Amino acid sequence: MVIAVNIETNLWDSIIEFLIKENWKVSYKYDGIDAGIDFGFLILKKNNEEILFGWDNWVEGEIKCEEARLKYIEQQLGVSFELGEPENLKPEIIELYRKPAIKKWWQIIWLKLFN
Asked: Which of 2, 45, 73, 74 has the most CB atoms less than 10 A away?
């Protein structure tokens, strides 16, 4: 996987909208009180592939995905990404936000099975 960094906020939002139109599904979206103001974290999934999005108002957007997927996005949107070290998609941050996603997934299954 590769990580694109320093993605301008409007472009970052446009990439998410583009992928959702291509049938990517939101499997997790950070919804804390500062969501969209100071911080954002999103996981999109399609088939067995996922794309992670991190954002804050200081370093702006980051995307973590397979290199081929990032190249596809570049080609489709006519942009070029800078690869680098992330601020918001560090392993410890990803792990922190994956846990609520897993918890919500189990809650959904539990409700479907027993309600």
From this structure: 73
pTM value > 0.85? no
How far CA 30 is from CA of 56, 70, 75, 84, in Å, comes to 12, 22, 28, 23
The whole-angstrom separation of Cα 58 and Cα 70 is 23
93 close to 39: Cβ distance less than 8 angstroms: no
pLDDT along the chain (115 residues), means of 10: 96 97 92 73 94 91 97 97 94 76 49 55
Count of CA atoms in the C-beta half-sphere (13 A) of 50: 10
